[in-house]
Task: inverse folding
């Protein structure tokens, strides 16, 4: 036998040995799998559905972590209607929060990594001061709308983005999909976020959005001090359209609307927004400010699904500065905002409320394009009558033994925030002087005014939005001149300005 023949023989022997090992491993795996298919976990699933493991079909749907409570409500409603006595069971084993239910069930068969266990529970917020119990890892037997047996599963996954995953096991895809779709319908119907005041934030360790619940403020109209006619105009545009929504739609008119509140810091823009929140009972309010603006797309999608809704973007100039004023052009958030305001259908009852301290720097495509901002209202520094009204408002729980007109005359050019702080400081002066409890005199106010107009307090006055010129009213402290209202809603000189209609022409 030649050396070549010996090499061929060795190669054939090696191939035969490899094939034998493969058959051995496959047979061992099949026998292990057959054994594991009889594990309590797999038996619990397959005996309820009535098919062996290899014939199971699973469909799933991912939800954001902040949708967990709504998903639980949907599942609870589904089970209450079909299998109210059904009991949850769980999966025991390591690394459960980093895998999928389908993968864990498969690993339970092929490798025996997972076994039957108890369900895991957690809590999720359903309001500012309320929470509910949710299943974090668990499965539950039930039936499909057509009566076929199914098993529903829930798993929270800890990864770059926190997810809550719904899985449905059934004997065929159509059955599993019908259950998934019905749970989703019930989730929307019983969504815990509907009609709530929500704010977006970011997780400390992950990049996914977090949604928090805020108490709904309730302010009376007397608590909002604006020049005559401005609050009425705001209400007519935002609340009035809400009250006549059905008749407007019947008349072929759109419901989507945009409101811009602009003016110096501290004049009451956010206070006015809070008043609107209290007036729009039943509306879902979604508030974005600061770093949370990067979740604009998620916020608008949530508003669409929970309409009627209001999306509040505070200090919108932070993301919507005029592209001509920004070196290198504007950032992606501007385009997200423009696309969001364009993408909401006209018959959707979604309100965009934007606030800014710097109306003069706003991107013209946002501020001047009809259909994005339909109404722009300036919230100015209060005049003398307004300052008297604010003194009475912030001192309503006190006895004001002072000449309020004189105090108003000495505080020309200040803001509502300044007046609020002035009352607080006058109370501190009264406490230091040992005055009668709850009584403020002209002397107390005088001392507080002198203190706040001290040159050393210039930064404080600036933080409170007061005019930089001591006692001098500057209605347009930092504003540029843009002409009258005929130039569009985004560049008002003062007062209330309607937008230019509702079309899709670029501004």
Result:
């Amino acid at each position: 036998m030649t050396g070549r023949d010996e090499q061929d023989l060795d190669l054939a022997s090696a191939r035969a040995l490899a094939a034998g090992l493969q058959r051995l491993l496959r047979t061992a795996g099949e026998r292990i799998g057959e054994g594991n298919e009889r594990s309590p976990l797999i038996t619990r699933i397959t005996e309820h559905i009535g098919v062996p493991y290899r014939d199971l079909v699973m469909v799933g749907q991912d939800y954001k972590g902040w949708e967990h409570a709504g998903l639980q409500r949907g599942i609870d409603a589904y089970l209450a209607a079909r299998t109210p006595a059904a009991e949850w069971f769980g999966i025991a084993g390591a690394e459960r929060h980093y895998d999928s239910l389908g993968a864990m069930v498969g690993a339970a068969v092929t490798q025996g990594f997972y076994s039957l266990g108890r369900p895991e529970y957690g809590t999720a917020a359903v309001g500012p001061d309320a929470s509910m119990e949710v299943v974090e890892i668990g499965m539950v037997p039930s039936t499909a709308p057509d009566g076929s047996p199914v098993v529903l599963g829930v798993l929270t996954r800890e990864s770059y983005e926190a997810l809550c995953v719904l899985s449905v096991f059934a004997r065929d895809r159509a059955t599993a999909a019908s259950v998934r779709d019905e749970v989703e319908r019930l989730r929307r119907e019983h969504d815990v976020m509907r009609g709530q005041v929500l704010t977006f934030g970011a997780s400390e360790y992950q990049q996914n959005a977090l949604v928090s619940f805020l108490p709904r403020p309730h302010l009376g109209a007397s608590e909002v001090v604006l020049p005559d006619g401005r609050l009425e105009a705001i209400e007519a545009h935002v609340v009035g359209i809400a009250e006549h929504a059905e008749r407007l739609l019947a008349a072929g008119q759109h419901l989507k609307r945009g409101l811009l509140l602009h003016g110096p810091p501290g004049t009451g823009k956010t206070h006015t927004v809070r008043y609107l929140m209290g007036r729009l009972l039943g509306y879902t309010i979604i508030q974005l400010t600061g770093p949370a603006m990067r979740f604009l797309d998620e916020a608008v999608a949530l508003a669409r699904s929970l309409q009627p809704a209001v999306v509040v973007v505070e200090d919108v100039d932070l993301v919507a500065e005029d592209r001509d004023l920004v070196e290198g052009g504007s950032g992606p958030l501007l385009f997200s905002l423009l696309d969001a305001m364009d993408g909401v259908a006209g018959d959707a009852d979604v309100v965009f409320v934007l606030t800014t301290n710097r109306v003069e720097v706003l991107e013209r495509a946002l501020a001047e394009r009809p259909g994005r901002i339909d109404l722009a209202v300036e919230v100015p520094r209060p005049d003398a009558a307004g300052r008297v009204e604010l003194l009475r408002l912030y001192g309503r729980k006190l006895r004001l033994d002072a000449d309020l007109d004189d105090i108003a005359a000495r505080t020309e050019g200040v803001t509502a925030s300044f007046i609020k702080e002035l009352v607080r400081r006058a109370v501190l002066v009264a406490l230091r002087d040992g005055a009668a409890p709850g009584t403020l005199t002209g002397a107390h106010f005088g001392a507080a005014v002198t203190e706040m107009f001290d040159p050393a307090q210039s930064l404080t006055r600036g933080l409170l939005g007061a005019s930089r010129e001591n006692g001098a009213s500057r209605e347009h402290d930092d504003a540029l001149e843009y002409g009258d209202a005929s130039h569009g809603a985004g560049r008002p000189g003062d007062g209330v300005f309607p937008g230019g209609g509702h079309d899709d022409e670029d501004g």
